[in-house]
Amino acid sequence: MKIMIVDDHPVVRKGIKSILESEDDINVTAEAESYDEALEKLGVDLPDLAIVDIELKGSENGVALIKSIKDKYPQVKTLVMSMDDGSLYAERSIRAGALGYIAKEEASERIVSAIHQVMSGELYLSSKLSKMIASSHIMGANDKGPDVTTLSNKEFEIFKLIGQGYKRSEISKKMSMNINTIESHRRKIREKLDIKNSADLSRMAVKWYVDSQ
C-alpha cells in the first residue's frame, strides 16, 4: 500500500513513517505539512491512503483537505490522526469523507490495524471515540447547543477560537486573515446559528467549547 503522511510536525511524520515502513505491505511514498503541499504531491503520484492531521500549516486544516481529496481523488482513502480526540472533529472528518479517526496517543499501537481496516473499506474509530459519538447522538434530542455542523470549516475554526477566548486580532493572526475577513465570517456564524449579537456569540461559543471538552 502506498501511503502519504500529512502532518505539520516533521518529528511526527518521521515517527509514523518508521512504524509503517517496518511493515512488509506498506510503503510511505510522500509527506506534506500543509493543504497546498499535499494537493500538489497528490497531483504527481496518488497514494492508496492519506493519513491526515487536523492541524496543518497554512490557513486550511485537515478537514478541508479531506473534502478536497474526496472531490478530486475519490479513489484515495483518508485516515485522520490527530491530537484532538474529541467527537466533534471526528464527526466533521467523517462527514468530509474520512474513513477513520485515530488519536496520536494510540497511533504507535493501532495505526497499522487502523490502516488495514480503512483499506478494507471499513470505518475505524477508537472505542473511546465510538462511545463519545454514540453518546452525543443519544443525547442530541436534549441538547440545546448550536448545530456547528452547519458551519464551514473556516467558520468552525473561528467559532472554536472564540470559545477558547481569542480576540478578533488574535484570531486574525492565528488564521492568517485580515480583521475584515474575520468579521465577515463572524457575521455568517451569527446568521447560521441564529445569534443576535457579538456578546451572545462569545457566550455561546465559550459554553459550546466547555461542553465539548
By CATH's scheme, which homologous superfamily of the largest domain applies?
Response regulator
Shape-level CATH architecture of the largest domain: 3-Layer(aba) Sandwich
Mean pLDDT: 86
The biggest sheet, with number of strands, parallel, antiparallel or mixed sense and barrel status, is: 6 strands, parallel
In the CATH hierarchy, the third-tier topology of the largest domain is known as Rossmann fold
The tally of structural domains comes to: 2
Q: Spans of 5+ residues with little confidence (pLDDT < 50)?
A: 137-142
Read across the widest sheet, the strand sequence of neighbours is 2-1-3-4-5-6
Order of helices and strands: EHEHEHEHEHEHHHHH
Number of strands: 6
Task: Name the structural class.
Answer: alpha/beta
- How much helicity do the residues have? 40-55%
Q: Tell the overall outline.
A: elongated
CATH class of the largest domain: Alpha Beta
Number of helical segments?
10
Strand proportion, as a percent range, falls in 5-15%
The termini sit apart by 35 Å
User: What is the rounded Rg?
Assistant: 18 Å
